[in-house]
Specification:
Shape: globular
Number of domains: 2
CATH superfamily of the largest domain: P-loop containing nucleotide triphosphate hydrolases
CATH class of the largest domain: Alpha Beta
Protein name: MoxR-like ATPase
Number of helices: 15
Radius of gyration: 21 Å
GO molecular function: ATP binding; ATP hydrolysis activity
Helix content: 40-55%
Family: Belongs to the MoxR family.
Strand order of the largest sheet: 2-5-8-1-9
Organism: Aliiroseovarius sediminilitoris
Largest sheet: 5 strands, parallel
Strand content: 15-25%
Pfam family, one: AAA_lid_2
Distance between the termini: 33 Å
CATH architecture of the largest domain: 3-Layer(aba) Sandwich
Mean pLDDT: 88
CATH topology of the largest domain: Rossmann fold
Order of helices and strands: HHEHEHEEEHHEEEHEHHHHEHHEHH
Amino acid sequence: MTNDAILDEIEALGDTLARAKSVIARRIIGQDQVVELTLSALLAGGHALLIGLPGLGKTRLVETMSTVMGLREGRIQFTPDLMPSDILGAEVLEESAEGARSFRFLKGPIFCQLLLADEINRASPRTQSALLQAMQEHQVSIAGQTHQLTAPFHVLATQNPLEQEGTYPLPEAQLDRFLLQIDVEYPDRDAERDILLATTGTEDAQAEAIFSAVELIAAQKLLRRMPVGENVVDAILDLVRACRPDDEAASQIVRDTVSWGPGPRAAQALMLLTRARALIDGRLAPGIDDVQALARPVLSHRMALSYGARAAGHDLAGVIDTVVDQTTRAVAAA
């Protein structure tokens, strides 16, 4: 495929994404950034972790997204007594009319295309870890047998703030499987007014399919062919490496406050998501401003402040913003 043909396809995909975003916005009011980040995660072929208090529309967003993107939805309500077999499925012993016995695999709710893992941090770490293989390899292993998941496969997990009762922090290995973390905040007054009027009447806005699963897979492949400038690649590498406290390129504020930093998956996530953000905005290539905008969602769940830094009142978002400012200015000056 020639460069002109790729650019034509990117332009056409941008128009389709604009329609999809418009349909989603009819049901998800006042959360434009949340919608854009979630859509970016699906375009990039990854998973997203939505963090926010109950009642902010996280579940409604996932349901709407499954309809608009043409994906078969599954849902798991995470609770303290949830077991791994409740997610993956289990082998059961069956007996035929002739008396012959055999095992049959009963698929769990993870066998879908868009999984809503609702309140994921309500379950124990053992149950949370049941998602690890599925999220990374798109397959699960039960009783020595490997079962492939249907493509595409995405997990959109909702999480309550850790300060709430009855929550378990997600292990670092699982957090790293999420392409980005999306903070769902309260809507402003005007948006909340629109929500009241739109959702308490006799009719509710309906979603419609804009993509199919096949079309989404094609869009994900096209995304990976989108050109990325050398300055954007340098900005991504400089930012990720500057956030590792043991790296020679680490920023001084990171050395002083951060206990562990992001790995190569963070750079991969930034590379894919900057392309997705440019596509959604109708641009043919990403810029450094995309790296700046995505730094917090990509890095915040892949870094941790030291105990001393927390005691001193440091904020991880502030640390990331400082490093972003330092590295992007250095790239611009180069």
